[in-house]
């Protein structure tokens, strides 16, 4: 992806994030989505590693980071994700918003 002009920010609405980027990612329709929002297994990283990584992958935006993070469930039958890292664990904070289609959970947005 080419460099952005000074002052330019990649600013998505929740609708754009879900209906275009996430939808195309799940459907495998548009591989360029990975250039804009990279796939990063954040559970393999320590929290202090994310600022450097975000500068490299999120085009230098220090205020907002977008990653597709694969889910790794702790138990075979589902449940809570495995948040363990080499030196601790990720603690879930903030709030969660679910986006559903009839009979189908489309996305869970963590803030």
From TrEMBL:
One Gene Ontology biological process: regulation of DNA-templated transcription
Keyword list, A-Z: DNA-binding, Nucleus, Transcription, Transcription regulation
Entry superkingdom: Eukaryota
GO molecular function: DNA binding
Gene3D superfamilies linked to this entry: NAC domain
Alphabetized Pfam families for the sequence: NAM (PF02365)
Annotated NAC domain residues: 4-111
Protein name per the record: Putative NAC domain-containing protein 90-like isoform X2
Organism annotation: Davidia involucrata (Dove tree)
């Amino acid at each position: 992806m080419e460099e952005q002009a000074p002052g330019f920010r990649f600013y998505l609405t929740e609708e754009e994030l879900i209906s275009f980027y996430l939808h195309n990612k799940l459907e495998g329709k548009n591989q360029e989505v990975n250039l804009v929002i990279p796939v990063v297994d954040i559970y393999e990283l320590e929290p202090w590693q994310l600022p450097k990584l975000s500068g490299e992958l999120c085009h230098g935006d220090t205020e907002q980071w977008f990653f597709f993070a694969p889910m790794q469930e702790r138990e075979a039958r589902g449940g809570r994700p495995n948040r363990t890292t080499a030196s601790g664990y990720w603690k879930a904070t903030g709030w969660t918003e679910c986006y559903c289609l009839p009979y189908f959970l489309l996305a869970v947005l963590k803030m």
